[in-house]
Amino acid sequence: LADAAFCAALPKAELHLHIEGTLTPAQKLALARRNRHAMASMTLEQIEQTHHFGGSGSPEVDLKQMLDCYYGGIELLSTRSDFFDTALAYLDQCHREGVRYAEISFDPQAHTSRGVPMADVVVGLYEALQYGRATWGVQAQLILCINRDRSVDSALATLDEAAPYRECGWIVGLGLDSNEAGNPPSKFVEVYRRAREQGYRLTAHCDVDQVDSVKHIWQCIELLGVERIDHGINCLEDPDLIEQLRQRGTCLTACPTWRLRDPQPRRVERIRAMLQHGLRVTINSDDPGLLASGTLGRMLPRVAAHGRFTRAEMAQFCRNAFQGAWIDGPTQAAY
Ligand code: ADE
Ligand code: ZN
């Protein structure tokens, strides 16, 4: 079996991580004080209380509650330095936990809609990536996530605004996140077509146990042409879909994350089944600041113990992540 020391020593990659979801209550309080935000008047305990969501009994409501907390904290990020510091704190943690490579998602619309310039978001994040690489040798790339509960026009305008950063290679991929109910992948066909033309690598969320999840996963591969799916655990309900994902080598970025009210990792048996089906499934932290599971390095030994995973299985999750990573050419040989 894979013990904590084995998990710590594994070279790790993280492909599904929202930078806005890395903010812990303490980080939120520090940002609130610095930016003179109303949250500065709250105590740490009060902010921690807002992180107690979930457990409603409905996956859609639980996701909505989690997103309310996530987007409630997002407005603490307003300057270039806020983005730089937040990304650097995450990369520092990667370095300490043996995460050698990370693909970091960000939600530009949630910032630009508040008047934060796209340049401050992207340049702040990208400068942290350069600093992290130079200081710790941790490699990372950026994924621009479209908020699926906003309009297609807003998504297209966001692609236009981000075009200069895509052209110079500062953004590698496009994702799709936020509230899935009523916002199927099919809504974004035109957005993905344009993004593909601009050279983006493509992924999209199909969150766990959402309505029509299987249908949404099919839409992602057939209509959007994604190479990866974020979560995608419900593929297990359709044998034809499993076969299709296996043949395509689609990477599925699963998150056995747990909330404050959950005592144990979640979704572990389904993640094991995905591995046993030969799917390219990986383990990720998603929103380590919001979720009790925390960072990848903290979560992995708990998942290994709870699922009684062998060393070979834990290594396979990590190998899948490096294989699913959007690294081209000679760099990949380093792994
Ligand atoms: N944004 C941050 N985390 C998310 C998740 N798990 N699903 C959808 N949108 C998100
Ligand atoms: Zn996510």
Automatic annotation (TrEMBL):
Cofactor: Zn(2+)
Gene from which this protein is expressed: add
EC number: 3.5.4.4
Keyword field: Hydrolase, Metal-binding
Designated name of the protein: Adenosine deaminase
Enzyme class: hydrolase
GO MF term list: hydrolase activity
Domain (Adenosine deaminase): residue spans on this chain: 11-335
SUPFAM superfamilies: Metallo-dependent hydrolases
Record Pfam families: A_deaminase (PF00962)
